[in-house]
Amino acid sequence: MDTQVDSPSNMGKIIFYEDRNFQGRSYECMNDCPDMSSYLSRCHSCRVESGCFMVYDRPNFMGNQFYMRRGEYSDYTRMGMSDSIRSCRMIPMHRGQFRMRIYERENFGGQMMELMDDCDSIMDRYRMSDCQSCNVMDGHWLMYEQPHFRGRMMYMRPGEYRSFREMGMSNMRFMSMRRITDMCQ
């Protein structure tokens, strides 16, 4: 049973700052923001006061993605982000089971495997050398381009993802997957 709670205790809060070390103008956000340029000209640090968020270096939830949980992030360049944050998405808390089907080819073709827990290497566990589409049935997941949850990542919420290439991920191969199990409070 999939239970998603949207109560005040499930709401996140993140504060973005124009400059490193929480300096300059700030913008407080409690939900998805597809384009932060109307609030801040740039964004180089943030504090996550509650919840979990994905932040992106391009508007409309595009570009490189980074997972943020409660804490302080004083300088994005230390995280490998080359520019500033341009958009963010709040990750709702999920209670219940996690289930995702990964496919070797686009449009749910080729070998299929069903995951219900973290997988640190699809090659080692399933002998799959590539994952080009997936169907997230339950829960929220992070997919990584390298084994052992390393490299660039992509946030996956429930839904069908027929082609990672068409989503702008043509030069990425996803090799490990992790459930977002943080309480995000």
Give a short synopsis of this structure.
Helices cover 3% and strands 46% of the residues.
Helix content percent band: under 10%
Q: Count the helices. How many?
A: 1
**Cα-atom Rg, whole angstroms?**
17 Å
Strand order of the largest sheet: 3-2-4-7
Distance between the termini: 21 Å
* Helix and strand run: EEEEEEEEEEEHEEEEE
Structural class category: mainly beta
> Largest sheet, described in full?
4 strands, antiparallel
Secondary structure elements and pairings:
Blueprint: E1 3-4, E2 13-19, E3 23-29, E4 45-50, E5 52-58, E6 62-68, E7 71-73, E8 87-91, E9 94-95, E10 99-105, E11 109-115, H1 122-126, E12 133-138, E13 141-146, E14 150-156, E15 159-161, E16 176-179
Antiparallel strand pairs: 1-9, 2-3, 2-4, 4-7, 5-6, 5-8, 10-11, 10-12, 12-15, 13-14, 13-16
